[in-house]
Design goal:
Layout lengths: L2 H13 L4 E6 L4 E3 L7 E7 L2 E6 L5 E7 L4 E2 L13 E4 L3 E7 H10 L1 H27 L2 H12 L17 H8 L3 H13 L3 E3 L3 E3 L4 H5 L2
Antiparallel strand pairs: 1-8, 2-7, 3-6, 3-8, 4-5, 4-7, 9-10
Helix pairs in contact: 1-3, 2-3, 4-5, 5-6
């Protein structure tokens, strides 16, 4: 979401007097865990949040990485009694916690907020669907390139965030569905081709799109 859109959402919440709490989170701190009661919806003001799911043996799969302007835990609005995923801060993060009943009231009276939320929900649904197709049909190299571009916000409103938040190769491997050594191989390849470079962090160049678009 663009900075303007983030400000609009927060403005809508303030305009209807939504009761909310602010949570300051440290890196790797859980916001909620799979199986917790789904009592509120959250809105990311600052930082980066990982959404993951675990099976009965404890194996974890990373579903997506969310940036400022994203909601999470919205399943509670559909009468979902328990969290189906785990949300964890990747970097130091600030989130707003809004009780379910407060969010429902806000969506009913603030048409601008309702429009922004519906647009967000549809965009997220499309992104998750594209991720599933990507996982089923595309190569590891193409999946990794798409993941890096998504993290850099290419294709979204506003300017891309070329400097990515600090994300380990192990986490990238979980998101892509491969091993860390294979991620390392392709990251080195992308670096040699000039698609990415390291200078105070990981920078993603728009030329990486060529990997995704190449059939």
């Amino acid at each position: 979401m663009s900075t303007k859109a983030i400000m609009n959402v927060q403005g809508f919440l303030d305009s209807v007097g939504v009761t909310k709490r602010v949570a300051e989170l440290r890196p790797r701190e859980a916001i909620f865990r799979q199986g917790d009661p789904a009592t509120d919806i959250l809105y990311i003001q600052n930082g980066t949040v990982k959404i993951s799911v675990s099976n009965k043996t404890g194996k974890e799969a990373v579903l997506e990485i969310l940036a400022p302007g994203n909601f999470l835990g919205e399943g509670c609005l559909t009468r979902q009694p328990f969290r189906t995923t785990t949300a964890t801060a990747v970097t130091s993060s600030t989130v707003l916690l809004i009780e379910k009943k407060e969010m429902i009231r806000a969506l009913r009276v603030a048409h601008g907020l309702s429009h922004s939320f519906i647009t967000y929900a549809l965009a997220r649904s499309i992104r998750l669907e594209e991720g599933l197709v990507d996982q089923l049909f595309n190569s590891t190299e193409k999946r990794l390139a798409r993941t890096l571009l998504l993290l850099a916000h290419y294709g979204k409103e506003g300017q891309p965030q070329k400097l990515l938040p600090k994300i380990s190769q192990s986490m990238l491997a979980e998101m892509v569905g491969t091993t860390r050594p294979r991620v390392n191989i392709f990251m080195n390849k992308f670096k040699k081709l000039g698609f990415i470079h390291y200078n105070g962090g990981l920078h993603v160049d728009s030329s990486l799109l060529s990997v995704v678009l190449n059939e």
